[in-house]
Specification:
The complex is a heterodimer of chains A (195) and B (257). Chain A is of the alpha+beta class. Chain A has helices at 16-34, 37-63, 71-87, 129-141; strands at residues 92-94, 102-107, 158-167, 176-186. In chain A, β1 (92-94) and β2 (102-107) form a beta hairpin. Chain B is 18% helix and 32% strand. The chains are: A alpha+beta (195), B alpha+beta (257).
Chain lengths: 195, 257
């Protein structure tokens, strides 16, 4: 399909019910296929990762954000721009660790879990684990500010982060909380001999 | 057309998409009788004019067609060697078309990798910290504009020096790329964008330059139009990160094999 030039920044409106239903069908099918909650969580994370590495290009193309210089700016951009653009919600950022490398995203309402109730036999299922994978994948492809290191052929380096759910409304908590932790900069995409 | 070419280069420096939309180049076709008063020599698998510039035929022009039939590098369409053919008085009078040789796909690949390296050097040479790479390269006949995204993909556009609005064109191309790269689940990131059966044009639409592409995404083989060894050659997508080794150097259209 080819896009016309006047598409601009308008996004196609889609019914959020269809989105919720699609996600629900996906998770239930995975549960049937894998039977083990841990495996389903891993698969959701992997799928989210694949979505994230592609979504970041779309995000950068449409939102015109510049480079983020540190983890705090990254957190702001994720919460205020990215979540707003794709899910229509604006989570709040709290609980910064003293070293500034961990923070929490608090989602008041999660559009993925509208009308969902977790049954007892799936108590360790992380229903929205796709979101963690998306965050991980997107940040791995996006870039942090270049440090004046040795001669890099790709001047930017990527960030490896860890994202996990620490609170979930499906499990009875009041809000959904995703904890994001900065692990390291990834530098293994420099070509051999550039060390 | 004021846009001459578009190149998309991935993070590793490999060319993943290329589009040429030149206006017809200066070509000259003349009928010659034996002996040929131009000195021809073989260079890089092409027959070039080495001496004898006249009438629109300049030194460096390549033999493009003999008697109306396109030559295939150093061989004529029937498989004979061009220099031998032109050395034989029995073949005269002959009509030869000369013109500026087109870049082969291999050459485009090499140029893209070289530009990628120069881009990195450019940002290192800067006296200021945190400089971007090459954004524009200007010559008297064209301007090269480059936009590197935050994910390391470079979009390079060669345009007429007087053409304005290339920055927004580059952003637009990025948007279109993000659509085609993202929305097709069968496209692997950083891989060449195959358009064996597709067609790509740059057009003027609603007041901006826009890239219209209809790529074809298949996992199976696609038939490239080139006849090597007398048979149509299939193109298979490669799984490695490097661009595929075998290219259709016979096709002037952008195709990967």
């Amino acid at each position: 399909m080819s896009r016309q030039a006047n598409r601009g920044t308008e996004s196609k409106k889609m019914s959020s019910e269809l989105f919720t239903l699609t996600y629900g069908a996906l998770v239930t099918q995975l549960c049937k296929d894998y039977e083990n909650d841990e495996d389903v969580n891993k698969q959701l994370d992997k799928m989210g990762f694949n979505i994230g590495v592609r979504l970041i290009e779309d995000f950068l193309a449409r939102s015109n954000v510049g480079r983020c210089h540190d983890f705090r700016e990254t957190a702001d951009v994720i919460a205020k721009v990215a979540f707003k653009m794709y899910l229509g919600i604006t989570p709040s950022i709290t609980n910064w660790s003293p070293a500034g490398d961990e923070f929490s995203l608090i989602l008041e309402n999660n559009p993925l879990v509208d009308f969902v109730e977790l049954p007892d036999n799936h108590s360790s299922l992380i229903y929205s684990n796709l979101l963690c994978g998306v965050l991980r994948g997107a940040l791995e492809m996006a870039v942090a500010r270049q440090l004046p290191l040795r001669f890099p052929t790709v001047p930017q380096v990527q960030m490896a982060v860890e994202a996990k759910f620490v609170q979930d409304t499906l499990k009875g908590d009041g809000v959904t909380e995703i904890r994001m932790r900065f692990i390291r900069r990834i530098e293994d995409n420099l070509p051999a001999g550039e060390e | 057309m004021a846009i001459f070419s578009v190149y998309v280069v991935n993070k590793a420096g490999g060319l993943i998409y290329q589009l040429d939309s030149y206006a017809p180049r200066a070509e000259a076709e003349k009928t010659f009788s034996y002996p040929l008063d131009l000195l021809l020599k073989l260079h890089d698998e092409r027959v070039l004019v080495a001496f004898g510039q006249r009438d629109g035929i300049r030194v460096g022009h390549a033999v493009l067609a003999i008697n109306g039939m396109d030559v295939n590098g150093r061989y004529t369409a029937d498989g004979k060697e061009v220099l031998e053919y032109l050395g034989n008085p029995a073949n005269y009078p002959v009509s030869i078309r000369f013109g500026r040789p087109r870049l082969t796909s291999n050459e485009k690949l090499m140029l893209a990798s070289m530009f990628h390296s120069l881009f990195a050097i450019g940002s290192q040479l800067s006296p200021e910290q945190g400089s971007s790479g090459i954004e524009m390269l200007e010559t008297d006949t064209f301007k090269l504009h480059c936009y590197q995204t935050l994910t390391g993909i470079k979009f390079v556009v060669l345009a007429d020096p007087r053409q304005a609005g290339i920055d927004s064109l580059l952003r637009k191309i990025y948007e279109i790329y993000s659509d085609f790269a993202l929305k097709n689940p069968f496209y692997s990131l950083e891989m060449p964008i195959r358009a064996c059966r597709g067609k790509a044009t740059v057009g003027w639409c609603s007041g901006t330059w826009t890239l219209f592409t209809q790529p074809s995404w298949t996992l199976g083989p696609s038939w490239c139009g080139c006849f090597v060894g007398g048979r149509r050659q299939p193109c298979w997508p490669h799984k490695s990160l490097q661009p595929p080794r075998r290219l259709c150097s016979n096709c002037s259209a952008w195709q990967w094999c």
